[in-house]
């Protein structure tokens, strides 16, 4: 038999008993709430009646004072009577469900109307000089000015409402007592039901559940499980699942050991590869150094010999001029020397100069990875100001304007290297301005909320210009060494941006560019905003 079936049998009868008790309890609760609502209604009605009595008594006292002081202007205030009308209307609304009380309220309202008419007439008589008559009338024991009819009606109304309130309060108490007994009965019934269910559970299920719990504990501790629980219910299925999980965990542990051994082997291999890479890097640097050293000597010789040949050709031209040769032969020899030999020598010297520049660039590029940085917090605004001041001659020569945004946030990095990075970007912006329009360069930063760099530990700066721009096809080659787009505009070997990229990445940042050909470029540099957390 399934546990669900057993549970239904154990719970069905006690649950039915509890449902009946809960239904009775809910019904009693509804009766109690209804009785409380009516008792509260009686209190509200009596309070409203009291609120109607007070202004009428105050008006009666005011009439006496007005007559005694001969001040007719203080009588018959329209705002007071309007308030009384509102209160009387509210009282009528509250007792609209009770015909007897409603009738009394209407009589009270008529008494109020009669008293108001007497109040108006008293004011008119007082204004006509009939004060003595009013005084005699006020001294009389009977009459509208005494409010006796109004007060008697209101007292009868309140007394009836008090009686209704007492009845309603008694119903509230009775409902509460009924609730209390039902709650006691429900609690006792729940306790008895729980006890019976626990007894049935203990006898039929608890022993097997204890075995299941023990197996679960053994599984969590990695110990062998006890024998499987017999039966065909969910407890048996769970125990079987525990045994199968134990078998799979054993197999997984065996595979994990194999994976761990493989990972350790891969880690050793990776360490060997890193060692080889470091050795290869050192070998490459030594190779670059030795090649540059070995190439410099023949380049110097080429440059020197080309200059010697240049001087020799000049001497040769002088000798040609002194020889007694026909003018066509002399002119042909001069043309041969000046046009062919001198042109070839200039090509050789330019190639030597270019080769020397490339060798120096290769050395600088190889040394960029060996420089020991001394990072500190940097005042980027001061660095930008120094760079612009150092380039002021080039900027004036280009008739350009450089703008530095205020409040550039600080960055964390090596002062010399970061200044070289920013100086290279500003120098490129100046060199590649469009001569057909006034140059404008901006040095600023991107607010953290707008930055494409998601890491909050980086701050992003930019150098924006309205120069020649970069074609879309060339964007992927911008940071590759010896790649030059506008080679005829400015001198260089094409390693500046490659060095910049390497320096920025060694600082843990990144660099990228956005550009539109013919409109300008914007280089972004993201640098650490603070020292790393140790």
From TrEMBL:
It is an enzyme of class 2 (transferase). It is found in: Cell inner membrane. SUPFAM superfamilies: ATPase domain of HSP90 chaperone/DNA topoisomerase II/histidine kinase, Homodimeric domain of signal transducing histidine kinase. GO terms for biological process: osmosensory signaling via phosphorelay pathway. Keywords: Coiled coil, Kinase, Membrane, Phosphoprotein, Transferase, Transmembrane, Transmembrane helix. It catalyses: ATP + protein L-histidine = ADP + protein N-phospho-L-histidine. The chain crosses the membrane at residues 181-201. It holds the Pfam family HATPase_c. PROSITE patterns: HIS_KIN. Its EC number is 2.7.13.3. Its main location: membrane. Residues 290-531 form the Histidine kinase domain. GO terms for cellular component: plasma membrane. One of its GO terms (molecular function) is phosphorelay response regulator activity. This is histidine kinase. It comes from Herbaspirillum aquaticum.
């Amino acid at each position: 038999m399934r546990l669900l079936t057993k549970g239904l049998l154990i719970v069905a009868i006690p649950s039915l008993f509890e449902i009946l008790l809960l239904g009775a309890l809910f019904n009693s609760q509804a009766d109690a709430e209804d009785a409380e609502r009516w008792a509260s209604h009686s209190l509200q009605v009596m309070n409203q009646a009291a609120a109607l009595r007070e202004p009428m008594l105050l008006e009666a006292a005011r009439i006496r004072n007005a007559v005694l002081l001969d001040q007719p202007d203080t009588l018959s205030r329209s705002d007071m009577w309007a308030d009384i009308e509102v209160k009387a209307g509210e009282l009528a609304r509250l007792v609209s469900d009770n015909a007897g009380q409603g009738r009394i309220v209407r009589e009270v309202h008529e008494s109020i109307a009669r008293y108001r008419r007497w109040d108006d007439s008293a004011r008119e008589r007082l204004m006509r000089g009939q004060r003595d008559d009013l005084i005699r009338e006020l001294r009389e024991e009977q009459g509208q000015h005494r409010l006796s009819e109004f007060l008697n009606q209101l007292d009868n109304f309140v007394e009836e409402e008090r009686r209704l309130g007492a009845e309603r309060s008694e119903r509230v108490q009775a409902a509460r007592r009924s609730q209390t007994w039902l709650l006691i009965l429900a609690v006792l019934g729940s306790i008895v039901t729980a006890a019976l269910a626990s007894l049935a559970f203990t006898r039929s299920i608890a022993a097997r559940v204890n075995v299941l719990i023990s197996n679960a504990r053994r599984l969590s501790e990695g110990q062998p499980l006890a024998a499987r629980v017999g039966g065909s219910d969910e407890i048996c299925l769970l125990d079987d699942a525990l045994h199968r999980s134990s078998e799979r965990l054993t197999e997984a542990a065996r595979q994990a050991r194999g994976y761990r051994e493989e990972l350790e082997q891969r880690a050793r291999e990776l360490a060997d590869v890193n060692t080889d890479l470091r050795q290869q890097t050192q070998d490459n640097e030594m190779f670059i150094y030795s090649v540059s050293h070995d190439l410099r000597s023949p380049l110097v010789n080429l440059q020197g010999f080309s200059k010697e040949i240049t001087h020799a050709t000049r001497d040769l031209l002088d000798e040609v001029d002194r020889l007694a040769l026909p003018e066509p032969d002399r002119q042909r020899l001069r043309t041969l020397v000046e046009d062919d030999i001198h042109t070839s020598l200039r090509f050789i010297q330019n190639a030597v100069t270019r080769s020397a520049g490339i060798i120096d660039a290769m050395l600088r590029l190889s040394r960029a990875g060996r420089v020991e940085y001394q990072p500190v917090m940097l005042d980027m605004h001061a660095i930008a100001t120094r760079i612009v001041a150092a380039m002021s001659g080039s900027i004036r020569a280009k008739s350009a304007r450089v703008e530095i945004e205020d409040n550039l946030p600080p960055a964390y990095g090596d002062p010399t290297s970061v200044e070289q990075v920013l100086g290279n970007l500003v120098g490129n912006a100046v060199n590649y301005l469009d001569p057909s329009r006034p140059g404008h360069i901006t040095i600023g930063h991107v607010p953290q909320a707008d930055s494409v760099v998601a890491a909050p530990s980086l701050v992003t700066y930019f150098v924006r210009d309205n120069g020649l721009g970069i074609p879309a096809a060339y964007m992927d080659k911008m940071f590759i060494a010896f790649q030059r787009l506008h080679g005829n505009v400015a001198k260089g070997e094409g390693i500046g941006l490659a060095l910049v990229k390497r320096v920025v990445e060694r600082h843990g940042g990144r660099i990228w560019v956005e550009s539109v050909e013919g409109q300008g470029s914007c280089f972004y540099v993201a640098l650490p905003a603070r020292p790393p957390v140790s």
